[in-house]
């Protein structure tokens, strides 16, 4: 009986590495099948476009006329916004 514990230890010790090798091969073949799945090409296209799809809306403003207006820069142009008229006017083309 004493030897059966030793055999179990040896077999279990060999079974774990062998099962891990089998899992690794299974996951590798699953990655190969991914390219053939429906929608994979669309996913590849969208994953390249996603980083450029959002334009951050943060701007720095300068308050003018005691809070009656402000000046800001957007898309390389300087604007002035008047709160009374609720209009933004282009001031000039900003130098790069």
Give a quick summary of the entry.
The chain has 96 residues and is α+β, with helices and mostly antiparallel strands. The chain is 45% helix and 24% strand.
Could you give the topology of this structure?
Layout: H1 2-34, H2 40-49, E1 61-64, E2 69-74, E3 77-82, E4 87-93
Antiparallel strand pairs: 1-2, 2-3, 3-4
Task: Describe this protein's structure.
The chain is α+β, with helices and mostly antiparallel strands. The chain folds into two domains: 2-52; 61-93, no CATH class. The chain is built from two helices and four strands; from the N terminus they run H-H-E-E-E-E. The chain has helices at residues 2-34, 40-49, and strands at 61-64, 69-74, 77-82, 87-93. A four-stranded antiparallel sheet has the order 1-2-3-4, with no helix packed on it. Strand 1 and strand 2 form a beta hairpin. The longest helix has 33 residues, at 2-34. It starts with a helix and ends with a strand. The mean pLDDT is 78.
């Amino acid at each position: 009986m004493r030897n059966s514990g030793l055999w179990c230890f040896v077999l279990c010790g060999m079974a774990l590495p062998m099962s891990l090798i089998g899992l690794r091969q299974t996951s590798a073949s699953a990655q190969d099948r991914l390219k053939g799945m429906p929608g994979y090409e669309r996913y590849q296209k969208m994953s390249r476009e996603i980083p450029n799809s959002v334009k951050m809306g943060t701007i720095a403003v300068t308050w003018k006329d005691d809070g009656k207006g402000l000046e800001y820069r957007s898309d390389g142009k300087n604007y002035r916004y008047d709160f009374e008229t609720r209009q933004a006017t282009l001031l000039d083309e900003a130098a790069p």
